Amino acid sequence: MCPILKISHYHMCPILKIRVFVKCKKSFKQKHSHIHKMDGRIQLIKSIGEEVIGSENLEKLLTHKEHVVAYDGFEPSGRMHIAQGLLRAHNVNKFIKAGVHFKFWVADWFALMNLKMGGSLEKIQTAGKLMIETWKACGMDMSARASNLNGVDSPMVEFIWSSEEINRRSDEYWKLVLDIGTKFNLTRIKRCTQIMGRKEDDAMYTKGCSSETYHKLIKLNNDIDTLFLVDSEEEITSLKRAIKDTMGELLDRTTEKADDLAASQIFYPVMQCADIFFLGVDICSLGIDQKKVNMLAIEYCDKIKRKNKPIIVSHHMIMGLDGSDKMSKSNPDNTIFMDDSESEVKRKINKAFCEPGNIAKNPILDWIKWLILPITESFTILGKTYYEYNELELDYTELKIHPSDLKKQLIIVINGLLQPVREYFLENKEAADLLEKVRKYR
Q: Do 291 and 352 sit in the same domain of this protein?
């Protein structure tokens, strides 16, 4: 029995000899009895994060506050990848099991500011509805409810659309945004633009340079070393001129990139910081890539002398299949989407970067560690079942496991996890129509 995902339990497949998902209709009370022991609740919450800031305050929070709220915000931006789907559903169900309410901030206005879906609010909202349907399909417990001391019953998972809530409480929201904006200078806010999928001072990274400039820099790196070895005045003058020309080009490009930032993209970090207080959040449960704006919220608490600071539970960013730091929707072969077919899953994983014995930049191992094991609690390959990632890593390092065997088993497990999602969309016309619409968006 899978203790977290509600629609499924594990069944030993007599053909594949692995545990796969099958549908389960047990009630929430049967499966999700809240963990009452404090240590268990704390450990469950901490297990969600790769990094937890403020963990020492969890016991006080859970003891003294009846209605503890965690949150995540997401920009609807097309098809959902596997970490957004399966892992987020799993982690939300962990919060529920720990007795924590979860608020999803459906950031449709933020997606509009970030120029997603061609700047079409209608497309953004359609994509948001698809994400909610996908979470239903992969087992997020949206039926869970809890009563407060006054007997008022409320859902433990809420989806709050930013466009609706900001309009409904506009005075409160914009006063908060303005107050945060007055507490920080522009330099501090610009450091948070990475949360939008943009690196600060982007032009100083190679992707901000032209191909010609990039290769000139590589050459100049060698030229600078040579500069201290040559005696000829002519060679020294030539090298200095080349360095000056390239640095001038880089300076021009840096200015262009700074000018390319829309004003709305400067508002974005301030508004995201405001969301935390606007929604009454106790625990921020976002990716580690959102750490800068979460820290901005903690700094804001210091500036206004607020004692109750949000606890930051930052989850790991799953690597891209090409070995890049995280999956990218703009490169479909770099990730697995929740609606990918069995053959697509097989093709993409077989193409994935996976060097024998290499654990440093290995997306296959990364997926098993951060995506598969947290959900399935075990991984079986070549007749051996691993319950701890470190054991699997050791055997891989010692070349006891070949990349092709690792990929083959990962394909089987992922397709097993995605099968209930495929069935949901086959059986639910409204969800299927949303998926068909979003697939056509560019």
A: no
